[in-house]
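May I ask for a protein sequence together with how it folds?
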Amino acid sequence: MTDEQNPRTGQTPTGTVRTITASIGQVLVSARGLQKSFGDRQILKNVDFDMKAGDITVIIGKSGSGKSTLLRALAGLTDPDDGRIIFDGEVVFEDEERTEVWEELDSHVGMIFQSYTLWPHMDVLANLTLAPLKKLGLSKEEALERAKRSLAEVGMSDHLRSKPSQLSGGERQRVAIARALMMEPKLLLCDEITSALDPPVAAEVLGVLQRLKETDGIAIALVTHDMAFAARAADRLVFFHEGEIAVNTTPDDAFNRNDNPDLKKFVDAVRF
């Protein structure tokens, strides 16, 4: 959402309303021919990728294979060198730059990191409301009500005034999810968000994500090295190898019937 938009109507000065039209089961985001290099090293090599509303897509592969770079490109945190990104039928990246439409749709995209990135000096309420107050222009009352709803969705209603230091790792990750929900995203990108969590806590976080995709129709992309988590979470499983998508299938096929030697080697190395 741009600074010129009315925060209540979502309208720009031209009267354009940018709402998400993709329903559950329809393609929400597409990447075509994405390429990205850092120096002499090519990280993304002509990547094609689709995500459907209401699906959890789990992305696996070796460190440096391109997984996180793809997420950052979809989130607008880094621009590809070439290719196209389409979000809800609108081209948001093309010809090496973001289109004007991206500014009207980027608030529908949320990203959560392994390190939580919570402000340690702020309580949970302040962490949740900072961006909506500044970016969406919500009133304090509207932001408070939205914060209460977001915390309720992740089972953290009793921690509105807690500081991050008072929370466990799993609780901090739930707050990070709630903060992303404050922007009411339709695409949620999660980069290794369970890697520092014990298996029971990771399972709780997975439960939160599954509820979100089922109740809100959010498309979720999740990078992980935890194969047990991947098997439980994924509707689609994508395996990156040396900057390319080598496998894109169901988790059952990937783990039990796929004959890709690089995937087999990777899974055997990090298996359950």
Confidence is low (pLDDT under 50) at residues 1-17. The chain is about 35% helix and 25% strand. The chain has one domain: 27-270. The longest helix spans residues 199-216.
